[in-house]
C-alpha cells in the first residue's frame, strides 16, 4: 500500500475557481466545435461542395463533420497518455490551443470556387484537428473537476463541465443567428466566417483560465508514487488490458449524450430546412431554446444524481428518451414554428438527463493510474458513433422519402443503448468487480485530499 503523504486539501475557494475554469473553458471549447456542426448544415454544403446535387452535398458536408469524430479516439490516445503521465492540466492547455487555432483557421479558408478541391481537403484537415482536441478535452475537464471534489457530490459537480455543451450551443447558434440576419449574399460571402474568426480571441481567454488551474490531488499523488516505483509505461495499453469490458459499458452509457444531441441539433437543422422547408432562423432559434432547457435539466439532474446515484439518473434518462422520441419528431414535422421549437426542446431536454451525470458514471469505473486514458477512449469511441449519426440520419431520411420515422427509430436505438450501459455501470458492474472496483481501492492520498 502506498505511503504517499496526502496533498493539501483543496479549499472551497480553490474548488469554486476550478469549477468556474472547467465550465468556462469547456464552454469555449464546445463553442468552437459546435460552430462546425451548424456551418455543416447551412454553409459548407453550398460553398465547399457546390458541384454536387443538394442532397449529396449535404451528405458530403456531414462526412467532413464526422471526420472530427473519427479523430477523437486518436486524441483520446494522445491526451490520455499526456494526462496520465504528465498531468491533467498539461493536457487541457494543449487541447484548448489546438481547438482555438483550428477553428479560427476555418474562418480563413477560401471556398471551392477559389482553390478547387483543396478547399474541402483543408476543411476536413482542420476538422480532424478539432477532433484531436476534443478527444482529450472532456475527459480532462471532468477528471480535474471530480478529482478535486468529494465523492458524495460527484453527481452535481460532474454536471458543471456538462453545462459547457448547452452554453457552447448558445454561443455558436447565437453567433450564427446574428450573422444569419445578413442578406444571403453577404452571409455566404463573408458573414459565416465571423463566428469562426472569433475563436482566436476566445482562445486567449480560455488559455488564461487553463493556466490558472491547479493540478488534481490524484495526479500529484500518482506522480509522487511514480518517482519511487516508476510510471505506467503505456497507460492506454494497460487500460485496455485491465478494463476493456468497462470501456465498452462506458461507450454505451455515453452514446445518447453525444449521438442523440447531434441528431436533435445538427441533423435537425438540416432536416428542418431541407426536408420540411422551415426557415433556417427558425431552426437555429429552436436549438437556442433547446439549449436553455438543457441548462435547467442538467442542473436539476446533477442534483438528483447526488441523491439517487448517477447510474440511476442516467438509466431513467435513457428510458425517458425512448418514450419521447416519436412525440418530439411529430411536433417537428408539423412545420409550425412554435411546435417545431417545442419538439426540439423536448427532445434535447430529455436526452440531457443522462448527459448531466454521465461523467460521474464513466469516471467512477476506472482506477487512478489509467483513468484519463480509459475515460477518454470510452467517451470518444462513443463520439465516433455519435459523429456518424447525422450522416446515418440523412441516409435514413432518404430511404424514407423524407419522412422522419427512420430517424426516430435511430434515436430510440441510441437511447436504449445508454439506458442499458448506465444500468450495467451500476449494481451489475459493482457486483462483478467486487473488491477490485476503484471505489474500494482509491489511492489513499486521493481519499484524504478530497475527503
UniProtKB/TrEMBL annotation:
Keyword Translocase attached: no
Localization in the cell: Cell membrane
One Pfam match: MFS_1
UniProt key word Iron-sulfur: no
Protein name: MHS family MFS transporter
PANTHER family per the UniProt record, alphabetical: SHIKIMATE TRANSPORTER
SUPFAM superfamilies reported for this sequence: MFS general substrate transporter
